[in-house]
Amino acid sequence: EVQLVESGGGLVKPGGSLRLSCAASGFTFSSYSMNWVRQAPGKGLEWVSSISSSTSYIYYADSVKGRFTISRDNAKNSLYLQMNSLRAEDTAVYYCARHSFSVDYFDYWGQGTLVTVSS
Amino acid sequence: QAVVTQEPSFSVSPGGTVTLTCGLSSGSVSTSYYPSWYQQTPGQAPRTLIYSTNTRSSGVPDRFSGSILGNKAALTIAGAQADDESDYYCVLYMGSGIWVFGGGTKLTVL
Description:
The complex is a heterodimer.
Chain A: E1 3-7, E2 10-12, E3 18-25, E4 34-39, E5 45-51, E6 58-60, E7 68-73, E8 78-83, E9 92-99, E10 106-109, E11 113-117
Parallel strand pairs in A: 2-11
Antiparallel strand pairs in A: 1-3, 3-8, 4-5, 4-9, 5-6, 7-8, 9-10, 9-11
Chain B: E1 4-6, E2 9-12, E3 18-24, E4 36-40, E5 47-51, E6 55-56, E7 64-69, E8 72-77, E9 87-95, E10 98-101, E11 105-109
Parallel strand pairs in B: 2-11
Antiparallel strand pairs in B: 1-3, 3-8, 4-5, 4-9, 5-6, 7-8, 9-10, 9-11
């Protein structure tokens, strides 16, 4: 069974940093591109970043470019999101989502971890 | 960056049929955007319904179908049930690794 479990969320002050993790199991993690998608309280989904299976391709939404860094450790079956220079508008539930192997869509989602940026 | 548009809200009677759409602020949605649809209930993670315009994800009832209608992607729910009351999101692939979600449609079944 595919499982994605996010962790690392919490309360952080504006300008601070936080590192999110996503532990993957039930599939060959190293074969799949992965994504982060977030959802601000009461708002819609927003794609944040994606990383290819071998880390050759990395993409970011304009809203986080230059502040967030996506990475992965295929040996540890883990996906990460390093978030720096956090702003109040980064407050959201952050979901880890797997990119389908052969078709372009997000096929499995984690339960999310809440990041709150507030003084 | 392109804006993906969805109806903010929609209502349907139990047993009725509803079609939600997913458009672009400028231009037409085609299969080349690989439209996919996700259902989300409060406090839960999104659930994948439809991908590649019209392919149902595993376990999704055939009451849910996807298509291109005119210049938009569409999600049709036939025989609406009470537990279809959810938020529905579409997402489009813009190329160069960029995905853009629509603002979501809150579906009420009453």
